[in-house]
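Input (structure):
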């Protein structure tokens, strides 16, 4: 998915659609954790330890099921 940054005052904003937020389990006013790995920005929902473990398991299963599809979509 390609998103365009929007100018907000003297800053740039990345607008996250409601659907995208729902996919990662974040409500409209939810908190997210930002992490930089090299030139990659990771956006993760802030979770309690137990809930996070459940989501990690679900995410692993989901990614295993759709890994080939995501690889194909990522190709230019």
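Output (sequence):
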């Amino acid at each position: 998915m390609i998103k365009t940054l929007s100018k907000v005052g003297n800053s740039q904003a990345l607008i996250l659609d409601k659907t995208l937020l729902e996919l990662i389990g974040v409500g409209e006013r939810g908190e997210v954790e930002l992490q930089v790995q090299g030139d990659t920005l990771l956006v993760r929902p802030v979770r309690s330890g137990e809930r996070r473990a459940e989501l990690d398991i679900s995410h692993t299963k989901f990614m295993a099921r759709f890994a080939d599809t995501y690889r194909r979509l990522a190709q230019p």
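Notes: The chain has a mean pLDDT of 85. The chain is about 40% helix and 25% strand.
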